[in-house]
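Priority: medium. Attachment 1 of 2:
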């Protein structure tokens, strides 16, 4: 431990004999609550960082929740504070920041903190620097670290500890309490000098609370309805005796006690309270004893629950349970499920989820293309196990967990209607990647642009980043480098498809870009070409005077009536001096100009002085206008004023121009590309423009991902 005896209030006798009421939500844990209260009020000798850990099912989450009730002004009013041990009640201070990591990436947790404290951060280091620069200490509580991440097999809790909690703990102005799995707790506590951190392990005798566990069991056994109750729960003395036996058999595990009580209340027949062997000593025994009491095979119960043990996200849709149970068992499980609701009831928790609506808000999302993934509507029922450790027990008890996951992944893939991801169940669309990652099959799945478009980008990105980069194919690498844009905003499927379409053309994967145009999403543009030309400082569209599209002589100006139809549309690129193919922009050296065809992927060997640019009047007369920011571009209809296409970039725009015919040329640090705006309100595609051409030059493969960067916007 990293603090003094004044904080390590291990004298349980003092807590039990003082005559104070236990915390009404926790039912005990007085010694830990005293330590946390001392931490909260920054008592002399108290640590700045507290790491709370314990075995799965030891009650960490409940303990932190109960402590936060004491820290929240609203909840404090509902608690009998005068009846509690004063040493367990922190002073009435502003509530701490509590970023929930449930289902979130480490970066999302960090940016949640940045938003909470109003930090103008651009990168992760800016968040820690901003917190360190504050004049007053800040209090942060991070509960349930073991639930972090949208993909279980991606090991997000470890990333959260190393990338967020360790730097937070090292920030001197941060007062941190974190609920961390045991395998990561020592790493976090050991990252600080002695005296700054305290490791509280709820399984250590110093912090264990057997009497609190008895009270927990006794309360759970108390009849709460008017239904007839067996004598051993209705009679207070018998109930107390049974609670003591349960707690003793459970060996300190609150989860084991909870499952034993749920099993008993669901099916009390045949239970003898005098026979301690009928009470479980572990989570696994709770499963097996319950099955045997109901005359069922424990293996059948585990097979029925296996799909829920592998479920991702909020839980498994009830409609998929049967098919996945069949897949895991290798036989028809419909009768087992139909007759086994009482068998599974103590271990299953139904959850009502909200209706799905992935469409983004705001004009950028509307301009990006139509096609929300699923229509908004009523919620649905999903099923999950009552505790994550129960899922771990079931997975560990299978003969071959990898094979079971493979069977589940194949069954989910087969359930996609015609492999059309727009018609797939949202669970299939968003979580199939997580299942295939756990089965070792994800790289084979990452070739479908439809999946890239319709899957939840946060979950899919987390899954793809968990695959070794060398194992990814070219389409997956393109997705990986584009993923930061997809996760930046709540973009619709149309916006995701549009961004991916350009990325595929940039990487020389034009056939994949063509697939995206066949998804029925009405993309706002078609990428005509892309060149990996770096250092471009500006772009200007125009027409090449004196030469038609076929190389013949032509006469006219960029917007002149006589020559417009035959003048060759081009774009002049402002490039560094010495760029191959460029010509000086003026006398005396300096930047140069490079001419490129506007509609085709080819450079033009021509004098830049012959490029005639549209006049201001011609631009104003066009149907579209262009607005530009540092990392976004918007094309809008002059007639309606509505945005018809919106671009965002992970690198700053260095140049952009829009032709009267609606061809948008964009330069970034990565290169230059041209996009024909096709959204409503845009002019028809110029006759000289071909369909998407074959790429003239391919950019190198994208570099390896550097992790789930968040975004403060």
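Attachment 2 of 2:
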């Amino acid at each position: 431990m990293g603090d003094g005896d004044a904080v390590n209030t291990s004298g349980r006798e003092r807590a039990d004999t003082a005559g104070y009421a236990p915390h009404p939500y926790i039912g005990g844990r007085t010694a830990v609550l005293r330590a946390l209260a001392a931490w909260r009020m920054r008592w002399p000798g108290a640590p700045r960082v507290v790491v709370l850990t314990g075995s799965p099912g030891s009650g960490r989450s409940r303990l932190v929740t109960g402590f936060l009730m004491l820290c929240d002004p609203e909840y404090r009013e509902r608690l009998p504070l005068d009846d509690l041990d004063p040493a367990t009640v922190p002073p009435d201070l502003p509530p701490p920041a509590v970023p929930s990591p449930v289902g979130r990436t480490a970066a999302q947790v960090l940016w949640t903190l940045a938003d909470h404290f109003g930090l103008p951060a651009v990168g992760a280091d800016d968040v820690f620097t901003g917190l360190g620069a504050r004049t007053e200490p800040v209090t942060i509580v991070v509960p349930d670290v073991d639930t972090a991440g949208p993909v279980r097999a991606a090991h997000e809790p470890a990333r959260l500890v190393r990338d967020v909690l360790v730097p937070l703990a090292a920030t001197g102005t941060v007062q941190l309490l974190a609920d961390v799995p045991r395998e990561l707790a020592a790493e976090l506590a050991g990252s600080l000098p002695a005296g700054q951190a305290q490791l509280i392990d709820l399984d250590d005798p110093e912090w264990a609370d057997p009497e609190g566990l008895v009270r927990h069991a006794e309360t759970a056994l108390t009849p709460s309805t008017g239904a007839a109750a067996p004598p051993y729960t209705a009679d207070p003395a018998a109930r107390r005796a049974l609670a003591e036996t349960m707690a003793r058999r459970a060996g300190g595990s609150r989860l084991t006690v909870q499952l034993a009580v749920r099993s008993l209340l669901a099916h009390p027949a045949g239970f003898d309270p005098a026979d301690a062997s009928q009470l479980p000593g572990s989570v696994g025994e709770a499963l097996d004893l319950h099955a045997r009491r109901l005359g069922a095979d424990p293996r059948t119960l585990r097979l029925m629950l296996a799909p829920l043990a592998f479920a991702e996200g909020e839980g498994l849709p009830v409609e998929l349970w049967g098919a996945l149970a069949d897949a895991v068992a290798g036989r028809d499980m419909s009768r087992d499920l139909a007759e086994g609701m009482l068998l599974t009831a103590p271990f299953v928790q139904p959850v009502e989820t909200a209706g799905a609506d992935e469409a983004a808000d705001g004009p950028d999302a509307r301009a990006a293309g139509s096609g929300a993934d699923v229509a908004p509507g009523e919620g649905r029922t999903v099923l999950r196990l009552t505790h994550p450790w129960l899922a771990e027990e079931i997975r560990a008890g299978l003969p071959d967990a990898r094979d079971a996951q493979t069977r589940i992944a194949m069954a989910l893939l087969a359930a996609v209607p015609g492999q059309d991801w727009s018609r797939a169940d949202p669970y299939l669309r968003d979580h199939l990647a997580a299942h295939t990652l756990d089965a070792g099959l994800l790289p084979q799945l990452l070739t479908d642009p439809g999946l890239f478009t319709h899957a939840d980008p946060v979950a899919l990105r987390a899954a793809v980043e968990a695959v070794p980069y060398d194992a990814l194919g070219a389409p997956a690498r393109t997705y990986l480098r584009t993923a930061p844009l997809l996760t930046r905003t709540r973009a619709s499927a149309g916006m995701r498809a549009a961004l991916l379409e350009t990325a595929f053309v940039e990487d020389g994967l034009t056939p994949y870009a063509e697939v995206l145009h066949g998804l029925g999403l009405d993309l706002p543009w078609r990428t005509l070409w892309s060149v990996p030309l770096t250092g471009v400082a500006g772009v200007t569209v125009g027409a090449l005077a004196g030469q038609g599209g076929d190389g013949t002589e032509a006469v006219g100006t960029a917007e002149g009536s006589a020559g417009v139809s035959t003048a060759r549309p081009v774009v002049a690129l402002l490039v560094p001096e010495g760029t191959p193919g460029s010509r000086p922009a003026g006398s005396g050296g300096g930047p140069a100009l490079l001419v490129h065809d506007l509609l085709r992927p080819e450079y033009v060997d021509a004098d830049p002085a012959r490029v005639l640019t549209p006049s201001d009047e011609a631009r104003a007369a066009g149907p579209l206008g262009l607005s530009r920011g540092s990392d976004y571009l918007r094309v809008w209809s002059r007639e309606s004023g509505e945005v018809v296409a919106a671009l965002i970039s992970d690198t700053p725009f260095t140049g952009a121009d829009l032709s009267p015919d609606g061809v948008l040329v964009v330069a970034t640090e990565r290169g230059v590309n041209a996009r024909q705006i096709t959204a409503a309100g845009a002019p028809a595609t110029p006759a000289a423009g071909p369909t998407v051409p074959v790429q003239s030059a391919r950019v190198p493969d994208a570099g390896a991902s550097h992790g789930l960067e968040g975004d403060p916007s």
